[in-house]
Design a protein that fits this description.
Elements: H1 2-33, H2 39-78, H3 86-114, H4 121-127, H5 130-144, H6 150-186
Helix pairs in contact: 1-2, 1-3, 1-4, 2-3, 3-5, 5-6
């Protein structure tokens, strides 16, 4: 019975954590794009983004990540033999990447606040897709376990990355053309 409680709370924790991992890079995109606004709007927007980013990171993401990890430790403590399974070892490696991404986001918050972030909007849109891809891999490992069809995963991941890249490029192009039209109309 404790296993099911740990598992339930683990799922709740990672859902909350991933909500932040999905939303924070999106805020970074808006924060970076605020640089293109008038000086007054830029200052107001960047101050607000700084505030929201810090709150999201400190009050939601950090506790959710720690809770997720604590519940995972509880899961393993109830069934320690699971650590010998390859799928869990791979999953733990991906989770380490996610924890690294989490702390990288914390670093980006500090850089954006200091005005030293050198990442552009398009690059941040690409970075924004990292948690989605990693979540897909973690979920597939948790569901398929050691019977994961690796060829399908590899091709699915490659196709997802390619699709995300195409969508990002098309959206950026659409937005750039729209801004050019608005500039030409106002000129």
């Amino acid at each position: 019975m404790p296993y099911l409680w740990f598992k339930s709370f683990h799922v709740i924790g990672f859902v909350a954590w991933f909500a932040g991992l999905f939303y924070l890079p999106r805020l970074f995109i808006y924060h970076i794009e605020a640089e293109e606004r008038s000086e007054q709007a830029k200052t107001l927007l960047q101050d607000e983004y700084n505030r929201i980013e810090k709150l999201l990171y400190r009050l939601i993401m950090m506790p959710a990540m720690l809770f997720t990890i604590a519940m995972a430790i509880g899961l393993v403590a109830t069934e320690p033999e699971v650590l010998q399974q390859t799928w869990l070892q791979v999953k733990l490696c991906i989770v380490l990447l996610l924890v690294g991404f989490h702390f990288y986001c914390g670093r980006l918050i500090r850089q954006l606040e200091a005005g030293t972030c050198s990442i552009g909007s398009l690059q941040m849109r690409r970075i924004n897709e990292i948690p989605t891809i990693l979540l897909g891999l973690v979920v597939m490992l948790a569901i398929f376990k050691n019977s994961l069809p690796t060829s399908a995963v590899v091709w699915g991941t490659v196709m997802a990355i390619a699709a995300f890249a195409v969508i990002i490029q098309l959206y950026a192009r659409k937005r750039r053309l729209q801004e050019e039209r608005e500039l030409s109309i106002s000129s």
